[in-house]
Amino acid sequence: MEEKIQVEPKKISAKEILELLPHRYPFLLVDQVLELDPEREYIKAVKQVSLNEPYFQGHFPGNPIMPGVLILEAMAQTGAIYLKKVFPECRDKLFVFAGIENARFKSPVYPGDTLIIEGEKFRKKGHVIKTTMIAKVEDRVVAQAEIIAAMIEVSNA
Is the residue at 2 inside a domain? Predict the structure, then answer.
């Protein structure tokens, strides 16, 4: 990728996430970044899964589980935070899905779970970025995928 800014490994608050991402409730799926380390090309974020999430009303009522597509979206948002913090040329861009490879869902995510999302190995070719993401609950991997995003200009429409 292009030149990285020097960012010390650090946490990112919910307030700063709101400044970085265009998403808002109910589509903002990252609550906090626990660690961002450009040297290791690594980010670790958290999503607190609450029974109050609107999707639980219709996704397996009586036995609510977090939809897999929303876990993938949380992974993508985590990757976008990394890119916007580390690469200056990404700050005013929008990231959209360009592909998902090798996605695996290994265990359900339930209300009350703390979803830990880890991303690493950010690779860029032109306006396309690919990264490896893993989602965990406690130490158990619940999902993993290679997320491919396209970096596009923000539309004022």
Answer: no
